[in-house]
Structures
1.
Amino acid sequence: MKVNYVWLKDYVGDPLPDTGAVDRLLTEHAFEIDGVETVGNHAVLDVDVLPNRSSDCLCQRGIARELATILDTDLKYDPLAVTPHLETTDKIKVSIADPEACPRFTASLITGIEVKESPGWLKGRLESLGQRPINNVVDATNYVMYAIGQPLHAYDADLFPQVDGQWHFGVRFSVAGETVSLLAEGGANEERVIECRGDELLIVDESSNTPVGLAGVKGGQYAGVHAGTTNIIIEAAHFDPTITRKTARRLGIVIDASKRFENEPSRELPPYGQYEITKLIADIAGGTYEGTVDVFNEPKNNPAVTVRVAKTNALLGLDLSPSEITKLIARTGSTVEESAPGVLTCTGPWERTDLLIEEDFIEEVGRLYGLLNIVAIEPEKTTLSTVNTKQYYSEKIRQTLLAQGFSEVITSSFQKNDQIQLQNALANDKSYVRSSLHNNITAALDANFAHIDLLGIRTVQVFEIGTVFNKVNVEDTEGALGYKTEDGVSEHLSLAIGVRQKGNGYTPKDDTLLESACNALSTSLNTPFKWSIKQGVAEVNLSDVIAALPVPVVYDPAIKRKTTTFASMSQYPAIARDIALWVSSDFDAQRVAAILKDTAGGLCVRIDLFDEFEKEGRTSYAFRLVFQSRERTLTDGEVGGIMNTLNQVAEQNGWAVR
Amino acid sequence: MPDISGHQHPITQMIDEINHIFTDIGFSFEEGPEAETEHYNFDQLNVPKDHPSRDMQDTFWFKSKDVSEPTVLRTQTSPVQARFLESHGAPTKIIVPGKVFRNEATDATHEAQFYQLEGLHVDKGIHLGHLKGTLEYFFSKFFSGKTEVRFRPSFFPFVEPGVEVDMRLLEGDSKLAGKWIEVMGAGMVHPNVLRNSAVDPETYSGYAFGMGIDRLGVMKYGIEDIRDLYSGDLRFVNQF
């Protein structure tokens, strides 16, 4: 949320620590700051308000209050400090069908105003928050929302029919099929007409039972304020956050007003909004304030919470005294009373709807005292009592397969087609969960075979250990290590290994290599595996295999692993060329390779010796060179040129090119 | 020269390494199902009934005809906290590395599937200082150099107080050295989570933490696009 630094000064007072210090204080004690920017001549902080504080901190005053709490000062000016006294009016009537869905609804009547452009200071502040000024009345409603967090809506009273001299507002659930015409979205001119399903909360003009807005979500076109408006009604209400959120989400409407209603601001807030806006309208649009109607059926007071000093210190790892804790909690505006030795009774200020349990207050103590002051307790070395069987044997299998030349892959759990389809999918080709690893291993064999030269391998050998999902009958028994929700979806760990020796697909020779790997696994784990071998891929239910194995008592010692720094892969194709040379005994393969690589230059990304034999005192070496650029696709001619140079260098060294 | 030995995937290398680091201080490696019930994935973890994370936009749901109770592809490894506390009670000291799923658009730093590491330590007298010490121990081992940790306020439904954890590697010539880096969320286990699993919050307290193993890989190895982890591409895997 955007916060205007100068606006903060209205509340906190001047001098205020500079923006850098405000950034640091908020970050350490309250919220992360996503950035500080300058808009016009305003410094603006982008504050990442946490979900539990979105009830009171999605406004300038909320952040100012937070800052004052952190600085341990009082606000110089606090619009929420004094309960406003609002004149009542009998010219507006409100009927609420479901008080739980709409616990509070207030409306004020102001007559004789003049709609015009807002003064520069107000426009500047709205613009600093990324808002486009419209006219003084609409701008005032937005201004008050950004100031104290209460969304407001203005109606032209003369376009809103009266019944028996009264304007009559209603709040009720929609009837399926009825329509609401909403205000145009940010700058767009067309209205948006919503067809209701029956679960939206509506504000209606009771004179004709016409929906005038989606409660909490978005205001309607109905009785909109225009250039000639002179009499206005301003609405400020509280709507159920869940109903608001569901409707807003379903319709894809996320605007500043709905975001605030969704986060359950205090039910005490609407009259403060009315007080602020009537003052502001008087200042910038003139007119006469006639009074407010306030229908408040469902008050919700903050609870008195018992906070124990011992518990506070025990959770935070601190050693604070009762008076220190009392002072820290009191800084939030909460009332604190030491009701018994070491026991504090705390009630959060009315706008803090998040302070409900002991731990909520303990969190306040922790962050205000400073989480940076938490002292680390070094963990003690202990002997582990249990070894995870799956991890133990999976790791054993991995090491066995690595030694056999297999590399490990982790592939997608989603499939285009399989046994179990998800209710909602990321994409058409990902709407099922996998029941086997076979397809993914086959795809990995195909895809990797295209890169064998680049990889410096002759055969693609891969394996995966991963969870697969099957449909089962409820009567099926649960495997010892497999999981089954009693519902027909069972999952187990699967192991699949695959071999590919030819670019055009599976050949029966692949199975020979597979069988040797399978045998190595049986030997290593000393147990038979019930493989299903199909088209160069062998798969087995690993949960079943492991369930039959003895429970290990200690992990193998940690493997010393090399530190790797990943290098990103070129997106361009590689070209491979071979060169075979007769070389005298003065040179070994390594030296020849180094000379060739050096000559071939940076485009040669690898060189592999693939054949070597001796005859009559000379050795024949055959190398494969792989060329690839990071910037472009190489041409045959370009690589041919490099090969010509290599041939020349070979001759200079006295090597005969075969 | 031709590559003879195969290469282990960086994720399972990291999980093995993480396990050894935590084994030495008494954490056992636990696991749970990837097809998880709404009950464990959300309810038991104090995630409100109407919480946005339960929406179809964020979570993959199984079809109701296939399951006897609402079931999701787990969105976090945290349900194992609830399962393990319920079956084993306190004290408890576990790590849970595992695959999790989010229904969100993918890019270089987001995948619909990724790996998470959960930690949970519940016992008498456990506080934020233990969390800090354990994480400093872990990161120092994992990044092979003395590492410090700091907390900032944060919010997650299953902890209270909740913290954001930053780490700073103090030694070495790694690109990470000397900078504060946001690495994970953590906090003291919410009393509702303990109570839901029949552990008395008046007797026991505990911390929990959760971080992306993929993100650890980004930091440890300089991986640029986490989608490479799940591509099955040996040009990626064989670098490790």
Note: Chain A has five domains: 2-71, 92-296, 304-373, 389-547, 575-657.
2.
Amino acid sequence: MNMNLRKLFLSSIALILVAFSARSQNGSNDTIPASIEKINSSIQVLKKLKISGYIQAQFQIADSTGIESFAGGNFTSGVDNRFSIRRGRVKFLYDNELSQYVLQFDVTEKGVGIKDAYVSFTDPWLRWFSITAGCFNRPFGYEIEFSSNQRESPERSRMYQTLFPGERDLGVKLTIQGPKSTKWNMIKLDAALINGTGPAAVDFDKYKDFTGHLSLNKSLLAEKMNFGLGFSYYNGGWGQGTKYNYKMKDVTYADGTVRKMFAVDSTRIKGDKSERKYMGIDAQVSFDFPFGLTFLRGEFISGTQPGTSGSSATPAAQPAEATITTYSTSLNTSTGNYTTTASATTPNSDTYVRKFHGFYIYWSQYILHTKHQFIVKYDVYNPNVDATQSGIGTKTGLPSWTKATGAADIKYSTLGLGWIYHWNANVRITAYYDMVSNENTAVGPTIKNGTVTNSGYQSDRPDNVLTLRVQYKF
Amino acid sequence: MKKCFLSIAAILIAMSTVFGQKTTIRLKGSDTCLPLSQKEAEQFMKKNSNVSISVTGGGSGVGLAALIEGTTDIAMSSRSMKMSEKTKMRDAGKAYKEVKIAYDALAVVVNPANKINQLTREQLEGIFTGKIKNWKEVGGENMSIVVYSRESSSGTFEFFKEHVLSNKNYTASALMMPATGAIIQSVSQTKGAIGYVGLAYIEKDVKALKVSYDKGKTFTAPSIANAKNKSYPVIRPLFYYFLDKDDGKVKPFLDFVLSTAGQKIVEEIGYVSLN
């Protein structure tokens, strides 16, 4: 055996030993297919974990400084334009087919908040029933569950932001829906028992709220048309924090006329449940027209909402016994001056129960097969249907035991016009203009220490907002 | 001189890498379209050596999801795109085109040992919804019926449900198969079995039944000829979906599929041509 052959022989032996050693390492006798199978198993486990998220960075310009706004929150005093991160979401979903774990955070310049935190189980036999427990979207109507990263308007309508701030709540939900293989899959029933205080609040009373949504979804004309229809019901309430509960009742004015005004409901005491009842109907239709996809959506909600004198919104904390100094300001039409007539110390957190209604209609249109989409949305929220426009903010001629209506009773309408450019699967750019109109009432400006802190609602307030937004989702 | 030679060599290597690169077209989706697309791709690649085509199944829903995600160039589908899928496409800023490539006739198959040769639509509805559980109820042997179906992500599943079962629910005891091949295999091995497959999948190990859509007056066998003359009613179009931006890339292949040669393959495989 010459030198070269010996080298070749030794090298071959060494290679075989190395290969054998590698195969036998850690006592493993895995063949390549076995190793691939192991890797596949690991991938299957990893595929159950799904991470998604989106960021909405935006610039907004308001008609005037310091406005109250439902287009992403009030503007700070002295500010009429701002950059902000409207939403910065990251969602973790572990999907084990019949059970799911979901955790979603919202990270913005305002801090970190939890949006979703729930577990969900589906029955393994029929697969018709699912139970969800934790913090989840309240099953009511259509717009709550319509994700912010898909919705064409930057914000939900005023009525939803008022009635369901934060959209979510804590509780338990039952979902009944047939599997996809059944014809009953087009019908879905969600029913939940929740705290009723929203996603970020600890329950402050012993009462639990019921909310449910029955929906139908069906495609027709070989998928050229799709429609959805839903009915919603909410029945709950919260314990009033003071001994006074005001309702709109027929009151005889000094001139002998009978009109509705806030008067104490003497049958109720502190801790009693103030009823919160809503009924809603929602409908959606989409068409695949040759000139582009068309979506029409509408929703109407009516009901009874307990709030405070200053707001009809659902409170995150119990309006409690407290005292503040209030100012009653009126405009002297002959002199043109505002006069602060009196100040008094009264509980600011009595319960005010209002009958309300609200609706929105929505048209969004893709332009042919381009990346452009246009939106028109109109929404109305009337927080107090018993209050007359001319009567809001005035107490002239009213008995002293009644409470005047105010800013919280004013009806608003918002016309939104928007354009979306769908750059790609990740990025979309939105320009949207909210034209907000309020009822013209007798509610005058609020002046504190000689400074006008609220310009009043005697004419339409300059509170339109232009939003320019870029969204990235993955 | 040496430097010059090396430079030329490097340029030639780079050019061969760039110009020698194959165009790759990925097709994914409907199992019904799978054998047709495979044959079309095979023939197309013979004539176009610079094109490489990969074809994988999984179901129409899987293919359309892949198109939205950008992991396929052509989605094969045995049903029209759903509104929810259209919305996702538009949300992703993706413009797409739909091309009808052929028609498929669905055949109901049983084990060759089964004496039944024909069934009415009403009887099929009864069997697949679970109301009829024994072959003797439709004139066959005293033998339990074993129903095989495709999974719900399949376009075939939805088409059969809509056109044969009048949108009624499949029986809960139906065995859901992940692919058409699995139905053929199961039916061929189970005496009491019944299933449905695309015409192209019919083979000697299973027996295709004649069906009647006029309550038993006339029974028609599933065949290309009967599908073409419209006497066989269980027929549906097959589609390719692709993005506008890929038009240049996939057009030569689509032109081939729609050409006389491509449509001849359609009939050879067992589907119904567009002509």
Note: The mean pLDDT of chain B is 88.
